[in-house]
Write a structure and sequence with these properties.
two-stranded antiparallel sheet, 2 helices, 8 strands, globular
Length: about 120
């Protein structure tokens, strides 16, 4: 079993000392950094960034999916590889609320207490 680094869970540039944890908004996936980002958007971006370590699509250096002989994206699943934490994500889907477009990311997050 592996342990996570700060950068794996919170994006590149995350660091901590005794009293603070600093997360770079620009390193969080699916987040457009802005001075007024809502707490819910920040939490969602942290979870989506962390989810990339558990499962996803393998991409090339141009961020294009690598496909198999049937032209289907090749995926990975590391959901059992990490100690004390498990995340499973479903395919995001788009929806509208009050004529505003949204993307729904559903993630199951399970934490385990060490013995």
């Amino acid at each position: 079993m592996q342990l996570f680094s700060l950068n794996q869970l919170f994006g590149q540039g995350a660091f901590q000392d005794t009293n603070i944890l600093v997360i770079q908004k620009a390193s969080l996936l699916k987040l457009t950094p802005h001075v007024t980002n809502k707490a819910s958007a920040l939490l969602a971006a942290i979870l989506i960034t962390a989810l990339e370590n558990f499962q996803g699509i393998i991409v090339d250096s141009n961020n294009q999916p690598i496909t198999d002989s049937d032209n289907q994206p090749i995926t990975y699943d590391n959901s059992e590889a990490f100690e004390c934490l498990q995340m499973i994500g479903w395919k995001p889907f788009r929806f509208f609320r009050n004529n505003q477009p949204f993307i729904n990311h559903q993630i199951i997050f399970t934490g385990y207490a060490p013995n």
